[in-house]
Amino acid sequence: MKQITLLLFSLLLFSCAEKKTSEKMVSVTIEPQRYFAEKIAGDKYTINCVVPAGQSPETYDPTPQQMIKVGQSVAYLKIGYIGFETAWMDNIVKNNPNLKVFDLSEGIAVIDNPDAEMHEEHDHEGEEHGHDHGHKHTGIDPHTWSSVAGAKAVAWNTLQAFIALDKENTKFYFDNYNALLAEIEKTEATINQLLEGLSNRTFIIYHPALSYFAAEYQLTQLCIEMDGKEPSPAQLKELVDTARANNTRVVFIQQEFDQKNAELIARETGCKLVRINPLSYNWHEEMILIAQSLKDAEAN
């Protein structure tokens, strides 16, 4: 599949060479990046997000049209370590030798994900079992944006990227960055207030998307996904027992993943099901929703 897409991409790129847009475009992998990039870039650049909302960046394969947009970009801001990038960045760079690539994970203390190297397939809802995406896994948890400290680092690295691309407008980008930083710090203050004094600090989630958030706020994340696959009955029982022992009150569900096991665990443990979207464009709203859900669950 990837080889076919690359062939189509090469043909379409050649046929569209004369139609290359005059607008300045920067590509990013996921919607939270687009949020940070648009806040800082303002009207100086158009931000193109490659992985559409509702799709998993761990397994997504781009369309030829999306790859053409990447080819029309002056730069690519990668989030780092995520499945889409480990599978596609080498080919993107090879096919676009003039594309400037910036790594937004620089300076972030990453969290190891030792099970990731075992993830050979993802049994996501709507995908065929055994379908090989050709996506490699790095052993690093890629969800760096899902914490306040991570968001600050991503914002800073995004600022540095735009300054490198357009030094003449350094002050413009710095002013926008400072406004974004104030928004992040306001979000941080709200989260701190919501989680202050929280006694129950364990939650369940299907895919381990909140590792950095959990580490930042001394929370315990219990994951339904086992080695990138659906859990066995024995693993489900162990998870239910652990959740009961920790008096867990919340099960977070995500639209990219199957919900049947989350619903089963919620019934068995009496946990509240809460839908979240760590890939949401509205980063600040999503982070507050997660903290508010933990606070509300304890109150019930």
UniProtKB/TrEMBL annotation:
Enumerate the transmembrane spans. Answer: none
Which residue stretches does the UniProt record annotate as biased composition, category Basic and acidic residues?
119-131
- Which keywords belong to this entry? Signal, Transport
Region Disordered: list its residue ranges: 119-138
Q: Which GO terms describe its biological process?
A: metal ion transport
Q: For this protein, what is any one GO molecular function term?
A: metal ion binding
Q: What is stated as this protein's family in its record? A: Belongs to the bacterial solute-binding protein 9 family.
Annotated protein name in UniProt: High-affinity zinc uptake system binding-protein ZnuA
Name the species this protein comes from.
bioreactor metagenome
Taxonomy of origin reads: unclassified sequences, metagenomes, ecological metagenomes
